[in-house]
Request: fold
Amino acid sequence: MEKIKCLIIGSGPAGYTAAIYASRAGLSPVLYEGIQPGGQLTATTDVENFPGYPQGVSGMEMMEDMKQQALRFGTDVRAGVATGADLSSVPYKITIDGQLTVETETLIIATGASARYLGLPDEQTYAGRGVSACATCDGFFYRKKNVAVVGGGDTACEDALYLSRLASQVFLIVRKPFLRASKVMQDRVFQTPNIQILFEHNTLGLFGGKGLEGAHLVKRKGEPDEEKVDIAIDGFFLAIGHRPESGLFKPWLKTDENGYILTRPGTPCTELPGVFAAGDVADPVYRQAVTAAANGCRAAIEAERYLMRKRNSFTKLLEKFKTELKNGTFWTTALTLLTLLTCLPLAAQDKPLVIAHRGYWQSRGSAQNSIAALIRADEIKAYAAEFDVHLTADDILVVNHDPAIEGFEIQKSAYTALKDLVLPNGEKIPTAREYLEAARRTQLKLVFELKPHATPERNREAAQISVELVKEKKLLPRTEFITFNLDAGKELIRLAPEADVYYLNGELSPKELKELGFAGLDYHYDVMRKNPQWFKEAKALGLGINVWTVNDTALIGEMTDAGADFITTDVPNDALKWIGTTYNRE
Reply:
């Protein structure tokens, strides 16, 4: 029995990319290559649509490059096939080659999906020399040539349409007297002049010399008017479906009707904590090397986050408390106890991440956001820092939570009237630019909360300035936005489509937010308690959920059980340091 942190099954773009990221994160991953080391891509002669290879590259060479990169960072790459799985409890158990059992804390399934073939011996003869199961991958090589696509569903029609823009003639070989594709896809195929549909045709075989030259077909097979037909083609594309290699895991994980592993929308996370699916085994739509690699990256990052939270469990927190109770001062022990009482449900259940906000910063509960607070949040390794901004009269964004300070109404005031005011900690009010400049020196994720303004134009203007500032400081990859206002929200989504935008308050349902393009909900716990169905709806739609500000132990447990991804809470700064890395970053 071998015990490891991170096990990766599969050696295609998803598996190797996951290995690269997991290795660099210090997870010491073990990767088993499976039946076909390198995956399906090793059977592709030339790959010209993967970034970083301007002259193209053979599939075998590209996968060897990925393997060498994974090895360079310390991945333990092994020959072997997963033949058994027990995912009933953690650590998960995987059997390799029917002999070795590996126990793993995290599992990344990257077993891929294999294309369905007709079963003709000629398909193997001309593999890589005219026969392909990926029009998007190989269509470019058949510019101004004649090709055939086998199938009658949406995929076959999509492939035929794609190839019609490259090839001179496309034959769509359909064994039935009709198309199974949707009406809109049928109409598009019928209206494309260089697509010829061969209804009631079956493929008997392929022929050619060094490369494919044609196909032997039979029309109305078995009928009195059966007729054999030959067509001259340079490319033969299979579009009769794929078979995801998920059978080993079906007893433990949900799959769709075709066997693709179901993950939480927009993530590689399965229903089991610490189990992730990446690449074609969970992707019935794109099935591209670049999307598989991206999903492998996501899976490794999620595995790292999972282990980071799990590693520092309640037991470790309790040991800190015992030690401090024995050796520490009364006040330190009291604050540690406060942290235990407040954060025990989060630490024990290992679910949400905690965002540092407002009174998080100082024991006296100051509601101000400041640079000192930001730096302190980074020192105590909080997951994220949330800060609030207003657009002032002279278009300067000021970081502050309260709508008024010492009689000044922030939204109506010029920055010159505010810049000399002093916060309770003795710090002057920072501008958003100053705050973001300080944030560049931290590892925190930044939660940029944009306050509402008087007019739609003003809200859109505030959103524009906010995005410009974040881009100026090169912080967009680790910034998400929260807004009270739909005008600002829509503008944020338009200007920063790569960032997550959350909507605050409860007048819109998760479905409405999803349709508008928001990434999640940012609601006060009272709103969520009144609308418990929204938790379920948001989860089903793949929306993130941040609940604020939750300070009561029972409520923390309630919101955690309901499915909150993030909880914003006001724990005193001196107590927060004792949480350490229990459920935030290292």
In short: The first strand starts at residue 2 and ends at 9.
